[in-house]
């Protein structure tokens, strides 16, 4: 059967425009908050910062794009028969796996590289950063491997329907289910939606390791977000109150301002 068209060219244009716009936003954010002494130097961490901001925002903004992409086809049409404009599943895998790589390899390497001894050569600092990152990844790999081996399963309830067996020629006009107690003849046809014809079972299966890794990374990210987000929301009004309490209480002259600025070395 040919795939039913649900193609939406507008979504492709939206994705391209949003991606380019997020690059502009990430670069502007970096330029706005960078220290004046960091201009025209330390290009690698700047690239990491811009890419990390872009990746984070694009991951969030892809949710509504995915929903719109799914609505290209009617809900009555099976997903397998739809021809979507965007391969959402593949893009989700790319986004979340890239998040994992950036979070657990690129950013730690950048931190270890710039925290290395300034007397080291560039090559030695790269080696030092790689060694520290590999050591961290080995420890995390062992931990994740043990967790995946022992608890890397998914369990959920499924409803199974039992059926009897009848001769093939008797199924031509069959429109209902066959009772499990059938002895080869279609008698007392049952309804599969009625209580008593189904059985509840617990299905347990091992998830794919990339999916498991993505889930762990997401859980850790949400926990850190709740921690730092909660601390930030709680401390923000306190910080505002302290700034208000420590505000200047009197106006000083320009000469006094210059004198105090010189004392502070400004």
For the report, how would you describe the main beta sheet?
2 strands, parallel
Tell me the radius of gyration: 30 Å
Outline the low-pLDDT stretches: none
The rounded distance between the terminal residues' Cα atoms is 75 Å
Portion of residues in beta strands equals 5-15%
Strand order across the largest sheet: 1-2
Order of helices and strands: EHHEHHEEHH
Textual characterization of the structure:
This protein has 266 residues and is mainly alpha-helical. The protein folds into three domains: 4-115, no CATH class; 153-206, no CATH class; 211-266, no CATH class. Helix content is 60%, strand content 8%. The protein has six helices and four strands, in the order βααβααββαα. The chain has helices spanning 9-33, 43-70, 88-115, 122-151, 209-245, 254-264, and strands at 4-5, 82-83, 153-161, 198-206. It has a two-stranded parallel ribbon. It has a two-stranded antiparallel ribbon with strand order 3-4. Helix 1 packs antiparallel against helix 2 (43-70) and helix 2 (43-70) packs antiparallel against helix 3. The longest helix has 37 residues, at 209-245. The N and C termini lie far apart (75 Å). The model has no long low-confidence stretch (mean pLDDT 79).
